[in-house]
């Protein structure tokens, strides 16, 4: 791989040939496990510079230690979240809210949205979540002894719950998932088109809800007030786009990685099947082992950080899949221990921007595994197939074909 341009202030000895998008020997990863491939960075320096680690051609500093990632993610004054990732694909400059806002504006909008995704709200949604899981799995079980678990369960399960939350029609599920895949995992031609389509859809939905309010998320947003005023069109769009995109890929991918692990490890699969009370704790370990998100921050000033000369404007990567394999943080980090306790994993991030939807995501994953293990006998990855995984800002999995008898 030819070396991309490296800024003059970065010492050559701190540059490494590494990328979460595509790196030699990583993607496609052995046995469909990109997380294990990424863990190799812990054999090297705690921070280094990669010229390849974003989609937009800019390099990033890569923070490998979990403790250092926490320092970065908790210091919004030095490491800003404002990048306009989505809008930049359209040549625009509005933030996804609250993800790309820094304090104090971040806290204002976070307080507005917190009640909608609180633990209490997740409990209210639990009967509908379980009902959806049971219906899908029973249909799969009745149809035969094999399925494409992403297409037939993970996406229809998680996205349906999300669409109910947003008040969107379930019959467009495949369309919405297609938009998200093109945006998150698509090439440079598909991403701008997907971004434009999603923005147009969110704007149109907001206009409809202003004229004809119903009991759903978008109606709440268009009617909400912050600091005594209604939200602007750009603020409504920034919230709507973030929630729309965040709900269409990450939880489904987590369930896919979890089921792939259990398909390869029949003893753990049988343990959770025979002792379902263990599933909630096991999910925390699976979240540690198979997180999906890389977070990027932008330096707001020059700083020497653990020997790295970070300068204003530099990108800084805090990848959950790296932090969660840190041997200084977790004993035997590459071993999956479903009984691991005091599991301080980074799957949902750290600091003020910790994932707003973490409570709902946890319940979906736990319920999905509970009902799958209760209804599907011992399963393996179908002979002659292998999971197809993808890297990037969000790790994904597709074509996971499971078989049981």
Q: Describe it for me?
A:
The protein has 405 residues and is an alpha+beta fold. The chain has helices spanning 34-38, 66-74, 85-88, 105-113, 119-143, 149-166, 173-185, 190-211, 217-223, 233-246, 250-264, 266-274, 279-289, 320-323, 358-375, and strands spanning 47-50, 60-63, 79-80, 146-148, 225-226, 229-230, 294-299, 303-305, 308-310, 315-319, 379-381, 388-390, 396-398, 401-404. The chain has one domain (12-404): Cytochrome p450. The strands form five sheets. A five-stranded mixed beta sheet has the order 1-2-10-7-3. Strands 4-14-11 form a three-stranded antiparallel beta sheet. Helices cover 45% and strands 12% of the residues. The protein has 15 helices and 14 strands.
Sequence-ordered SSE layout with sheet pairings:
Layout: H1 34-38, E1 47-50, E2 60-63, H2 66-74, E3 79-80, H3 85-88, H4 105-113, H5 119-143, E4 146-148, H6 149-166, H7 173-185, H8 190-211, H9 217-223, E5 225-226, E6 229-230, H10 233-246, H11 250-264, H12 266-274, H13 279-289, E7 294-299, E8 303-305, E9 308-310, E10 315-319, H14 320-323, H15 358-375, E11 379-381, E12 388-390, E13 396-398, E14 401-404
Parallel strand pairs: 2-10
Antiparallel strand pairs: 1-2, 3-7, 4-14, 5-6, 7-10, 8-9, 11-14, 12-13
Helix pairs in contact: 5-6, 5-15, 6-11, 7-8, 8-9, 8-10, 11-15
């Amino acid at each position: 791989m030819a070396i991309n341009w490296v800024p003059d202030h970065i010492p050559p000895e701190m540059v490494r040939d590494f990328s979460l998008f595509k790196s030699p020997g990583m993607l496609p990863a052995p046995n469909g496990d990109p997380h294990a491939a990424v863990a190799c960075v812990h054999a090297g320096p705690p921070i280094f510079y990669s010229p390849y680690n974003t989609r937009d051609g800019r390099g990033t500093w890569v923070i490998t230690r979990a403790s250092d990632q926490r320092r970065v993610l908790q210091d919004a004054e030095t490491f800003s979240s404002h990048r306009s990732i989505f809008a930049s694909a359209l040549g625009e400059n509005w933030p996804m809210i609250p993800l790309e806002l820094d304090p104090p504006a971040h806290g204002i909008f976070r307080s507005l949205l917190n009640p909608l995704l609180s633990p209490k709200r997740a409990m209210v949604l639990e009967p509908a979540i379980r009902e959806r899981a049971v219906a899908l799995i029973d249909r799969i079980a009745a149809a035969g002894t094999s399925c494409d678990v992403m297409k037939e369960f993970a996406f229809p399960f998680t996205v349906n719950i999300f669409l109910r939350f947003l008040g969107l029609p379930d019959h467009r599920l495949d369309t919405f998932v297609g938009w998200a895949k093109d945006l998150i995992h698509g090439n440079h031609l598909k991403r701008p088109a997907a971004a434009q389509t999603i923005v147009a859809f969110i704007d149109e939905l907001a206009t409809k809800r202003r004229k004809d309010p119903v009991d759903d998320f978008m109606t709440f947003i268009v009617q909400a007030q912050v600091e005594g005023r209604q939200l602007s069109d750009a603020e409504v769009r920034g919230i709507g786009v973030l929630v729309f995109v965040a709900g269409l890929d990450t939880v489904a991918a987590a369930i896919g990685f979890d089921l792939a692990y259990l398909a390869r490890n029949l003893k753990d699969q049988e343990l959770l099947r025979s002792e379902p009370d263990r599933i909630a704790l096991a999910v925390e370990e699976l979240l540690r082992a198979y997180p999906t998100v890389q977070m990027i921050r932008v330096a707001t000033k020059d700083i020497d950080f653990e020997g790295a000369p970070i300068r204003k404007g530099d990108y800084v990567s805090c990848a959950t899949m790296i932090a969660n394999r840190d041997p200084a943080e977790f004993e035997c980090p590459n071993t999956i221990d479903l009984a691991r306790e005091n599991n301080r994993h980074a799957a949902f991030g750290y600091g003020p921007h910790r994932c707003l939807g973490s409570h709902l995501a946890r319940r979906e994953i736990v319920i999905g595994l509970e009902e799958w293990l209760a209804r599907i006998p011992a399963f393996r990855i179908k002979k002659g197939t292998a999971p197809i995984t993808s890297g990037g800002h969000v790790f994904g999995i597709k074509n996971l074909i499971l078989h049981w008898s």
